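Notebook, bench 3.
Goal today: get a predicted structure for Kynureninase from Frigidibacter mobilis so we can plan the truncation constructs. The sequence was checked against the plasmid map this morning, with no discrepancies at the termini. Length recorded as 351 residues. Pasting the sequence as submitted so the record is complete.
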Amino acid sequence: MLITGWNRAGWMDQPARSGDRIARLIGAAPGTVVMGDTLSIKVYQALASALELNPSRRVVLSDTGNFPSDLYIAEGLLRSLGEAYALRTVAPEDVAGALDETVAVLMLTEVDYRTGRRHDMAALTALAHDAGALTVWDLAHSAGAVPLDLAGASADFAVGCTYKYLNSGPGGPAFIYVSPTLADQARPALSGWLGHEAPFAFDPDYRPGRGIERMRVGTPPILQLAALEAALDVWDIADIHDVRAKSIELSQAFIAAVEAACPALTLASPRAADQRGSQVSFRHPEGYAIMQALIARGVIGDFRAPDILRFGFTPLYIGLDEVLRAADILAEVMVSDLWNRPEYKARARVT
């Protein structure tokens, strides 16, 4: 089809079609989510638009558990805007108390990438609005893992990747949500040609498209979107609430099994299931080597500096037998000090 595929195969509309499928999983209305670019790009877009919508304030509030890339993006953007702007970070449990009349935007990742601790989106969004701030929520560890209700929580902006619980593959496209009440007011800082009102008029002056369309930037990654579309098919037969219930069952069983057999590991995630996402983390000073020993034995988790072993639970694809077997293997690694080998302590570039 060559370039005719953009019309004949519907490629140009694919970011919106995929966005609507994700909208259903995150509690958003049709026409409020669009796909494209990377999560870092979408964080930049959302934060820049939110700041411009609150021009009398200069502070972005976040927490110390936020994913570093989000904080880096904020720092870079605020440097560009001038010395009057500042990023303020507080401990996750102190966010509510830090909202004051100086805060322009509250920018949080709903589920902490290290510990799995989950913020109360509805409560914090309400507090932010009461304080006169807008919200930007990062759903990287939430979408496809836990039930979400962006519309019900009155969230202003949200972003997320699709290569974790949505299974689109490495580097899969990100998404951005803008509340319908703001979609025609938000000015995209990255005013790319596909966010133009009429991209193929090739107008030398930018005119933002309608609603969420203005948050498009460059050419859609069609091959990546095709992989995402295939990965999303499972959600036509699965309910996120059922997935969440199974996730809690599996993670609780894992915690119990690991704590019974591995006293040297310390639970880093909230013990209460309703306070965490679909992951469980443990701490140990030799966390990196322990995780490498696990990976060598077929239990693939993550290490997150400085001492976190992170285990993700995807009930669509794993069950209780696999979870308990993973706990048994972890016990073998710990009891026999199988991690204490030079090859497991040599840090790879990706941890």
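The chain has two domains: 4-236, 240-344. The two ends are 41 Å apart (CA to CA).
Flagging this for group meeting.
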